[in-house]
Amino acid sequence: MNTETRQQIKIISCDDVNTQALRALIENSLNISCENIARLNAHDYPRHVSNFILIDATYSSASSPTAMAHLQEHNPNLRAALFNVHPYGPQELLVEWPIIKGLFYLGDSTTTLLKGLQQLLDNSHWFPKRVCDKLLDTYRQSPSANIKTALLSRRELHVVDELSKGKANKAIANTLFISEFTVKSHLYRIFKKIGAKNRAEVRCWALENI
Is 134 exposed, middle or buried (0-12, 13-18, 19+ CB in 10 A)? Predict the structure, then answer.
């Protein structure tokens, strides 16, 4: 009996002519099975199949922050990429989720798409240069002598500082000139890194470590 893991690409998008053409392009060019689905149920995700998930950024039910948080929580080892992303659009912020390994803009050539998908299938990443620059600028920081605070990025420490002042997510977003969704993304990672269960525990951690 062959127990070899079968690799497949699942496209989360509406099943229209464009998606059907994309599926055919991927199957014919990369010689890999490709399936279109309306949604991915995290609890029923077939872990025995090595799937790569391609998410249509114009398909709001799949590219919402809520959907991304659900997938990240239940399938932290999932590998996914976004396509049909508008440059400078809100979906660009979804690259902050660890499961997102690649991003393709609306209007990218088929050559770019296929080259990027091959890189992703080879367990690499594929992000536009501007997105990479933004990620580096956001998360790089000087080495810290405090090991506990070194767990958090510079931006995450800023969020903790504002949260410690009793500010709500919207107020934090306004102060740091970021979106409320980005604040929620930072808080998700902060809670996980420091082992906090709620905002009160984050405040206590900040008092002890910052």
Answer: middle
**End-to-end CA distance of the chain, in Å?**
57
Nearby residues of 143 by Cβ (< 8 Å), 6 or more positions away? 150
- pLDDT at position 49, please? 42
Q: b/e string for 171-193 if b means 16 or more Cβ within 10 A?
A: ebbeebebeebbbbbbbbbbeee
pLDDT in tens, 20-79: 999 999 999 999 999 888 876 655 554 434 579 999 998 866 777 778 877 777 777 889
Dihedrals phi, psi of 52, to nearest 5 degrees: -110, 135
Instruction: For domain 7-134, give its CATH number from 3.20.20.80, 3.40.50.720, 3.50.30.10, 3.40.50.2300.
Output: 3.40.50.2300
Q: How far is the C-alpha of 179 from the C-alpha of 93, rounded, in Å?
A: 9
- Residue 176: C-alpha distances to residues 114, 157, 191 (Å): 37, 11, 19
Q: What is the pTM of this model?
A: 0.64
Q: Give the single-character DSSP code of 86.
A: P
Q: Which residues pair with 105 in a beta bridge?
A: 85
**Mean per-residue pLDDT for 124-153?**
75
Q: Domain segments of the chain: what residues?
A: 7-134, 143-204
CATH number listed for the domain at residues 143-204:
1.10.10.10
